[in-house]
Amino acid sequence: MAGPTDLTGENILKPVKVGICGLGTVGGGTFNVLTKNAKEIARRAGREIIIEQVTLRRPNPAVDTTGVKTTADVFEVVNNPDIDIIVELIGGYTIAKDVVMSAIENGKHVVTANKALIAVYGEEIFAAAEAKGVSVTYEAAVAGGIPIIKAIREGLAANRINWLAGIINGTGNFILTEMRDKGRDFADVLAEAQALGYAEADPTFDVEGIDAAHKLTILSSIAYGIPLQFQHCYTEGISKVAPEDVEYAEELGYRIKHLGISRRTDRGIDLRVHPTMIPEHRPIAKVDGVLNAVTVNGDAVGDTLYVGAGAGAGPTASAVVADIIDLARTMDAPASASVNHLAFDTIDDVRVLPIEQVETAYYLRIQVQDRTGVLASIATILSQREINIEALIQKEGPEDDALAQIIILTHRVEEQKMDEAIAAIETLDSTHGKVTRIRVEHLD
């Protein structure tokens, strides 16, 4: 519904004033979108949205702040009585948390793109916001320009969400795509990703799955109405994925993606990030490069897929500004009119399954001495633990090499049984080195 207008048809609702804390890549993008699309944004919000003040520690050449108040002191913005909405784009846990909590204490609404802050301290932040009658929105915290949080909280609100799976880190997806398409190894592609600006100088958060675990924690909470439990999310990176694993996956009709997977089970919530083999015909398997993608399965709607840019100034700013518009539309309404921070009015304290209790299928690559009886010994170990084999390939080494590769695909089994089987296989005198294990999901 449109807001009240004067006799000329102009909107007469009080303008909303925004303070942007952090004018880096995303902050600069947010500033530019708010200024460039000001008229269109006002039409959507029903009122004008004005950038009142920004925190600027160093100049951003992509942003012209002429006519806007700037300061190096972030708390000058937070304490500015003229500002209605604080946009936190600093990142990290420390100063960012102080900014958000101070803004809430001052009765200001908050928009943030900080997935780490929400995943670790979200419960505390949301409780403070509810006590003050203000909102904290965080669409940009997951998958950049893909409106996945709104999709789950609002668009799929009629559904009981069964499971979700996502490529939610573009750096990892770029690396695995290059490894598949060009046969390159991990270290080589990582160096290129850093040169292109896709990966940080310290890429740990991206390639070891920590960034994706933050995002998966948030998605799982709004999907199932459970507490934010980042500390219980199993996390495994892609640094040990070898070119031959990528090649063998293709040969078997699969592709390797660094997935965040969450599933509702009778025993608890499955919450994990790791390299995953998925059938090549699945739509999400075809999402390559730096793109993000999330598949969500609801009991009424079935499978839905959301694909787009997961990072960058423009895509992330798109999500930040969408949150600002939502707040501008509803800030004069009672707090009860807004969507709950975690999508549910009541939260179920459901346990997250330890990885040992998760059930999935497996890809195993075992380097062995090329001699009679080796395969039978491995098959016996698997059979003793009720692990059924779906497919098996034996790759002979060069003629002058006494080693061979055995590649096995299994049916679904509890991880603890697979742990036991791998430990037993590695003790065989015919086994050379460690067994490579990649989990397999069919997403059905």
Textual characterization of the structure:
Helix content is 35%, strand content 24%. With 444 residues, the chain is an alpha/beta fold. Strands 7, 8, 9, 10, 11, 12, 13, 14, 15, 16 and 17 form an 11-stranded mixed sheet that branches. α4 (94-105) packs parallel to α5 and α5 runs parallel beside α10 (210-224).
How helical, in percent, are the residues?
A: 25-40%
- What is the averaged pLDDT score? 94
What proportion strand? 15-25%
Give the CATH architecture of the largest domain: 2-Layer Sandwich
Q: How many helices does DSSP assign? A: 14
| CATH homologous superfamily assignment of the largest domain | Dihydrodipicolinate Reductase, domain 2
CATH class of the largest domain: Alpha Beta
Form type:
elongated
In short:
With 444 residues, this protein is of the alpha/beta class.
